[in-house]
Amino acid sequence: xxxxxxxxxxxxxxxxxxxxxxxxxxxxxxxxxxxxxxxxxxxxxxxxxxxxxxxxxxxxxxxxxxxxxxxxxxxxxxxxxxxxxxxxxxxxxxxxxxxxxxxxxxxxxxxxxxxxxxxxxxxxxxxxxxxxxxxxxxxxxxxxxxxxxxxxxxxxxxxxxxxxxxxxxxxxxxxxxxxxxxxxxxxxxxxxxxxxxxxxxxxxxxxxxxxxxxxxxxxxxxxxxxxxxxxxx
Length: 233
Description:
By secondary structure, the chain is mainly alpha-helical. The chain has one domain. 72% of the residues lie in helices and 2% in strands. It has a two-stranded antiparallel ribbon with strand order 1-2. It is rod-shaped, with a radius of gyration of 36 Å. The N terminus is likely disordered.
């Protein structure tokens, strides 16, 4: 009788042990599966974030390389040529208004400016640079997107507020308008009415704002690179 009792206990004990082993095995598999699912979701989330950052970085790089950096190059070339042209001219000499009225006089001494051959060659070079700027703005200005600095009406900063810039125009539209009127004045298609075109003198502040925008975009790209690097760890 005792033998049968022990046999029954051993049978149930074996059944219980098997159930316990099965339970823990199932639990381990479930935990492993949950952990793997967590790792997969985490990696997927990282990949989505990484792709998003790479896309944002690419947009900024295209803006820089196809628009802002070439524009800065052409503007700096034009600025350098203008500095050479300006040497020996009165302080308040403005090329556009001079071309419209070459007989005007400057300063207390009422000095009159006459352009020599070198001056005219420099102006031709400035016009060539201006045409490159016009072409770039025409073909690539869509890359500006939502950069309010160049899509909203231009409000000069304090250092440039004394100049009579035309109102209700963006900085780029003011720039291209200047380039067109400057070219027409030099060719003789425009003359006189100096006051009418005073608002279209070259917007000197654009060189500063373009540089600031380039610096801003480069900082953002470095920031994106840093975030991507963290995700790769």
